[in-house]
Every structure is written in C-alpha cells, then in structure tokens.
User: Fold this.
Amino acid sequence: MKVLIQNRQKPTKLNLQKIKRDSAALLRLLGLKDAELSLLLVDDGRMKELNHKYRGIDRATDVLSFPQIQNKIQDTRFRIQDKKNRASCIVHRASLASLVLGDVVINLQAVKRQAPEHGLSFNEELRWLLVHGVLHLIGYDHERSKYAERKMRSKEKELRGYLGRSKN
Assistant:
C-alpha cells in the first residue's frame, strides 16, 4: 500500500510516520492493502480556497475528499464509474485494492479546534477525520440520506474502534 503525505501548513508539528501508519492500518482494515492514498494537510486559509474552488463554499471545513473514481458500495462489491468515459462495471473489493483511491485533505487548524469539543486528543481527532475522508473516497456519503448517514456513522465508529483511542 502506498500513502503519500504532503504537509502544506507550518504551525502544527506532526508525526508524519504515525499518520502514515494510521492510514496504512485503515486501508488494511478496509481490505485495501494495496491501494494508494494521498493525504494533504493544510490550514484554514488553504482549506477555504479549496472549498471555494471545488464546492462553491466560502469557508474552511475540517476535511475534503476527492475520489479518483466514483464508486458505490454494494456489500463487498463496488460499482465503479470512470470519470473520463463514464463506463460502469461492478468489481470485487480485491480489485479495488490496487486502485489509486484519491485525495483526503485535512485542515489541521480545525483538528486543533474540534478535538477539545469532541473530548478527543489532537491525534484522535485527526484519526477520526482520516477515517471520515477515506470512507468518502470509497463511496460512503452521509449527505445522501438519513440511511446513508447512519451507515457511514456506524462504519466510522467501527473503524475508529479498531484503530483505537490511544492518546499519543
């Protein structure tokens, strides 16, 4: 598996190796051990720019996901739709394992603000947003319906439980 991390912010000191280990563990838990994931770590200013450019929203959010492919979860299978030619097919999770999943952008200033509000350490909040962003990459979407929201929240809770709540 390949996890690429770009740290595009200065104020927050990070353990990039820990973030990489957490990302790799998450991909293994999802059965995507050979997938490629890109993480971009930014501040409020850069997140606001990205939201404005790609979503038409003029504010910073905590996390953004940019899937390389569009997919819809169907049990252990995914419906893949290539963005360029709109071809669609169903593949098993094993086939997805070698895919470039896409990019997750995490706003570290938001992580700092939200961690105390959620009763979490900085690293726990960062892990939470990593899980949230990666689930979006593989097709979960809490904004689609109440059912989809419950399904995504349940999967987030399950994955965070496996990744642990270590305060480090």
